Amino acid sequence: MHVCGFRRAARLLREGRRRRRARLRAGLRLRRHGARHDARHRAPADQHHSRRRRGPAARAGLLAARRARRVRRGRARSVTGVPGADGLRGRAGTDLSRRGAAPARVARPPQRALRRHVRRSVPRDARPDRGPRVRRVRREAPAFDAAQARGRGEGTPAVKVAVVGGGLAGLAAALDLADAGHAVTVLEARPTLGGAVQTLPEREGDPEPPPDNGQHIALGCFTEYLRFLDRIGEVGSYLRTRLALPVLGEDGTVAAIEPRLRALLAYRHLSFRDRVRLPVTTLRLRSAQSEPNESFGHLLRRLGETDESVDRFWDVFVRPALNLRCDEADAGAGLFTVRTALLGPRANSDLILPTRPLGRMHGDAAGAALETARATVLTDARVSSLEELDADAVVVAVPPPESARLLGEPEPALEDSPIVSVHLWFDRPLLDRPLAALLGSDAHWVFDRGALTGSRPERGQYLTVVSSGVPELLEVRGRELVDRIAAQLTARLGEGELLWSRVSREPYATVALRPGVRRPGVETSHPNVVRAGTWTDTGWPAT
Predict the structure, then answer these.
(1) Helix 365-372 crosses helix 168-179 at what angle (to 10 degrees)?
(2) Is residue 225 part of a domain?
(3) Which of 214, 352, 375, 397 has CB atoms 3.0–4.6 Å from 184's, for a disulfide?
(4) CA separation for the pair 197, 212 (Å, rounded)
(5) Residues 6+ positions from 116 with CB-CB distance below 8 Å
(6) Residue 371: which pLDDT band, with cuts at 50, 70 and 90?
(7) Last residue of a domain, one of 134, 151, 169
(8) Exposed/middle/buried for 46, CB within 10 Å: 0-12, 13-18, 19+?
């Protein structure tokens, strides 16, 4: 080492002689600041203490000047066959070829201070050239693309993987496999990719942009979904904003749901007593334990919530994530949602709002990314049997009934929860904000689609209304449903003439995580065959 340790320098002092020991004792400095010197009569140290020196001589217990000389006299030990680290600050650039050889004389860099590091002293100026710089290089290193992954595996044949299903789960799996260097083929029965996230086929008279099959929103805690969007080049296709969800009451009162306990006290849709309970219950949910087959609504009432608070606050917060009311949802799923989004880091509760048509933002972009990664994408390709696939491994990323048919297994006992969307174009603006929730209405959520996409109509306002988890609306005829939703909106937001409308229904939108429901895992009874999808046991809500 080029810098001798303090212990070695101290051993060079001959402490056996009484005169020298007396001198050393006279120059000793106690470790505690402000303590008296014990060897000589002088002013108290807490009043006129000697100035502490900087640098290698600042260690207590040794005269600074004498100690510095001892350190300089010590010979640096060398290590056989260790080349110098050229270009690193604070290190010599000499190659030591034999043990005991003295290093070449080089200009030493300034060492302003020494820090204790494990069992030796490391110059402050040398520390940035160690761990921190390596970690910084790793953070800045670009990710391997498909071509680089294949280059790493030269001589190793790529595994042929067939991904059955072109929904979000299948597309995400295919991209990860392609990036790992495997030969991937995606087979989708529909003419377009994206699965349940689609843009409706265009009709004459449709506004621009064309309507989607539902106005999807996400939260900041959906890190894998955001990583997927980044991978397909759509990181700029959504608006990320802090959670400040306006909720409109029947009498026109507006209150906001925010991820701050103090803000819960200002939720004016509840009585004062219920508002005071809200932050208390929220904190208790951090450690609450659910009972077997218990609903989230029952758990909330066990913790002191009232029917009114469950209906007018907790349903509004939980329904978008679980596509169910609190009294219908599993308590464990509700706890996970609140702990992750409301009690986690603040960014977890951020709202992620798409600003492009869902089909272009997901299916089209993912298809282009797969082609760039040299994967094969086949649409209008229905798979009748797994035996017909020429693949070493298979990912089955289709809904439960189709998955059970392909795998030859019993269909899992899972129910579906629907989503119904009504698209309305009024002759004048009704909603004065990008989105809002409505209490006591079939219109659970209202979105200003023109404002979100940046494509406002020349006249009026283009709204999308979403109703989550209401199977009864599937049986209502289209015109009747449009009239019902439009009447509820105009009664709450003001009169307006309806210029255009369209209805989209998704009866199998999500799996209903009711009390006691257990989703299957990804493993199957077939070797090299796995499942994928939100209906599997991912640990996250099925939305």
Answers:
(1) 20
(2) no
(3) 375
(4) 8
(5) none
(6) very high
(7) 134
(8) exposed
Same domain, 50 and 16: yes
Q: Looking at the structure, do residues 336 and 300 belong to the same domain, yes or no?
A: yes
Q: Is residue 88 part of a domain?
A: yes
Q: Is the pLDDT of residue 81 over 60?
A: no
Q: How confident is the model at residue 456 (pLDDT cuts 50, 70, 90)?
A: confident
- List the beta strands (DSSP E) in 439-537: 445-448, 461-468, 498-511, 529-531
Q: What share of the chain is helix, strand, coil (3-state, %, to 5)?
A: 35, 20, 50
Domain residues for the domain of 435 are 416-511
- Tell me if 365 sits within 8 A of 373, measured CB to CB: no
Residues 471 and 497 in one domain: yes
Place of tokens 């009484």: 18
Same domain, 468 and 483: yes
**Cα 381 to Cα 193: distance, rounded to the nearest angstrom:** 11
Tokens of 314: 């907790």
Q: Quick one: which of 461, 228, 259 has its CA closest to 365?
A: 228
404 & 428 share domain: no
Residue 326 sits in the same domain as residue 364: no
What is the rounded average pLDDT for all residues in the chain? 79
Does residue 24 sit in the same domain as residue 127?
Answer: yes
DSSP string spanning 299-344?
HHHHTT--HHHIIIIIHHHHHHHHSS-TTTSBHHHHHHHIIIIISS
Structure confidence at residue 357 (pLDDT): 94
The per-residue b/e assignment along 264-281, b for 16 or more CB within 10 angstroms, e otherwise, is beebebbeeebbebbeeb
User: Which of 82, 117, 134 is at the close of a domain?
Assistant: 134
Residues 314 and 370 in one domain: no
